[in-house]
# Entry
Amino acid sequence: MSIAIWIGIVVLFIASFIGLIFPIIPSVLVIWGGFLLYHFGINNDELSILFWVAMGVFTALIFVADMLANSYFVKKYGGSKWGEGVAAIAVIVGSFVIPPFGILIVPFVAVLVTELIILKDVKQAFFVGYATFVGFLSGTLAKALIQGIMITWFVIEVII
# Structure
């Protein structure tokens, strides 16, 4: 039984990183699924209170990093609120269109078109589209780093 639970935990952790490419998979919730599977399926006394508090903080950081990275770059290059909203939707749509490249191409094109309609300035619209691209990559890198820290901390807690 324990081996099956460990396989489940590993699968969930791997799925959390797949969620970086396919945003329809809620990465941080999948990681929590692994933690809870261990807690309720293997040992409910091993993970410290500090661990659970830190994981809560890291979870909040993942959400903040994602929102701030996209918002920061779009605003920095003069993007509109419409551009920000379209970018968020386009990332999800893009994960289904020519995966995994769609999550880069679709938001860029969608924001470019949106900003062209709003701003009517090709150069500015291109920069905002580019900012969406950079914001997505920055947010994804930050999420991957934080997820890696969360999983590493979990492994250390379990081993020590």
